[in-house]
Amino acid sequence: MKNFLKNFVQRAVFSGVLLLGMTATASAAGYPEKPITMLVAYGPGGGTDLIARLIAPYVEKYLGNDARIIVSNKAGAGGAIGFTELARATPDGYTIGFLNTPNLISIPIERQANYTWRGFDLIGNLVDDPGAFTVNSASPMKDLKDLVTYAKANPGKVTVGSTGVGSDDHLAMLFFERAAGVKMTHVPYKGSAEVRTGLLTGQLVVGAINVGEALQFMQGGAPMRMLGQMSLKRTNLAPDTPTFAEQGFQMESASLRGLAAPKGLPADVREKLVKAVAQAAADPGYLKQAALLFAPVRYLAPAAYEKELVSTEKDLLELWKVAPWKE
Q1: Does the predicted model carry a pTM greater than 0.70?
Q2: For residue 32, what are the contacts with CB-CB under 8 A and spacing of at least 6?
Q3: Helix (H) or strand (E) run with residue 125 in it
Q4: What are phi and psi of 222, to 5 degrees?
């Protein structure tokens, strides 16, 4: 009788473990079983929002299982509101979102934040967009020399719109002030679409807007003109716009935009997301539409993406020691 009971218990435990294993496998195979939220830490109409809405159906395609992705904008505080919500979400694969540099890294350096970039599972980078200074087409400024001349004659009157304190746009403005020996006034917004509006309504003299975003707005009919781009060389997106370096200012600035999830994703779910995003990023249909949006695509797998973030963090920590940018 004792042997019978012992064997019965062993068989029951084994069956239970087998059943749990089969359930877990079925669950992983069935992912996603409900809609996935894709968070964007900036407002509607900006470069990150547009690329999110463009890539979403392609990620759905490669995830399979009738996947559905809902883009949700959580703008504010230079991106910190959206980054925080992403970091705090349940790591089950049903909340993913965009990370934007340098904001992702500069915000926790300059002030208390509820996240760090290491608190995310990286899925893959999609865009690398150089910075630019843009003006209303009605502005008499044609290049950076004109901007410097006006700024020196009118200290503090050059208002510069950015996507928030510590953003690539804001840091570029501070670098330019030092390089050119001028004083300008920073005006933070929740997203580049709001910067565009401020520029077109006359609230701003200069819009610090990335090249791809500026070209998107201009393609849409916005009367804007780029004074210079902050890439090492002229990008193929804007071959007629001189770089800052060509105009005498040794400056480079760009924003990475990639996808991530809260830290702790199940390994199989993470693998499925990474694979789907890589496939989406290489899809000819996506690439064609991205070109129409003037999105400077640059796919980076998680390991390469992490290497870029480590390098950016190192540079910003060194910069903070000698020239803190907090306003």
Answers
A1: yes
A2: 63, 65, 67, 68, 93, 94
A3: strand 120-130
A4: -70, 125
* Radius of gyration, CA atoms only, the chain: 23
- From the options 3.40.190.10, 2.60.40.420, 3.40.1410.10, 3.30.750.24, give the CATH code of 132-253: 3.40.190.10
pLDDT digits (tens, 9 = 90+) for 127-142: 999 999 999 999 999 9
E-assigned strands of 163-223?
A: 185-188, 206-208
Asked if 235 contacts 296 with a C-beta cutoff of 8 angstroms, the reply is yes
Give the number of other CB atoms < 10 A from CB of residue 29: 10
Phi–psi pair at 26, nearest 5 degrees: -65, -40
What digits encode the pLDDT tens for the residues 101-127? 999 999 999 999 999 999 999 999 999
**Averaged pLDDT for residues 34-43:** 96
**What is the CATH T-level fold of the domain 29-129+255-322, as seen in this structure?**
D-Maltodextrin-Binding Protein; domain 2 (3.40.190)
Residue 9: other Cβ atoms inside 10 A: 10
Q: Transcribe 145-173 into DSSP letters.
A: HHHHHHHHHSTT--EEEESSTTSHHHHHH
DSSP letter at 243?
B
Pairing of strands 224-229, 69-73: unpaired
Exposure of 238 in the CB half-sphere (CA atoms within 13 A): 32
- Lookup result for tokens 């009605």: 138
Residue 143 CA to residue 67 CA, distance in Å, equals 47
What CA–CA distance (Å, rounded) separates 120 from 128? 19
Render pLDDT for 188-236 as a digit per residue (tens, 0 to 9): 998 889 999 999 999 999 999 999 989 989 999 999 999 999 998 998 8
- Residue 304 binned pLDDT confidence (cut-offs 50, 70, 90): very high
